[in-house]
Amino acid sequence: MRSILFMLMLISSMAASATTISFDLHPAVTGSGNGASLEYEGAVFTITNPGNEPSSFIADSSLRWCPDCSMSMELSSGNTFAMSSIDVAFFGPEPATVTITGILLGGGIVETTYSGPSFGTFETVVLGTSWTGLESIQFVTDVSSATIINNLVISAVPIPAAVWLFGSALAGLGWMRRR
To answer: Which of 1, 34, 70, 88 gets the highest tally of CB atoms within 10 A of its CB?
Structure first.
């Protein structure tokens, strides 16, 4: 019975709770210029334009940015995270595409591309289990439309807390084994 309890502790030490970053209640904010950023709900969003053209974003009931720009996101705590889904829409004269790239801790990437209609409604892009251990995420849009995102579902595990819980669970298992 005790070993089952310690196994449950071990498993729960690796779990993280999911949170949704939603701009539904965000007061209207604009940012402009290459490198303009917004910190919101524990995440930092930064806009860039590869051609150094004027770049801008608007955050009110969603987060949207200019065509041919890219947006990156990382946690303000610096912790790694997992992302399981995101709502995406486009605003422009023709159908558009956004490439979502996750930068993994220690190198490597995961990537998905979403294409949708112009002036479309939000569609949820569900990401696979490989979208864990992320340092940051980049959203790169084609030139035809502004990208609009909302409801980013992420899970973050503070590394020191996870290590402490995992270590104490292992120590408890070792202690049980000795008895």
So the answer is: 88
Q: pTM for the whole thing?
A: 0.75
For residue range 83-121, list pLDDT tens digits in order.
999 999 988 888 888 899 999 998 899 999 998 887 778
Spatial separation of the C-alpha atoms in residues 77 and 39, rounded to whole Å: 11
- What is the third-level CATH fold of 17-156? Jelly Rolls (2.60.120)
DSSP line for 100-124: EEEEETTS-EEEEEEEE-TTPPPEE
Q: What DSSP assignment string belongs to 48-115? A: E-TT----EEEESSSEEE-TT-EEEEEETT---EEEEEEEEEEESSS-EEEEEEEEETTS-EEEEEEE
Identify whether the C-beta of residue 157 lies closer than 8 Å to the C-beta of residue 16.
Answer: yes
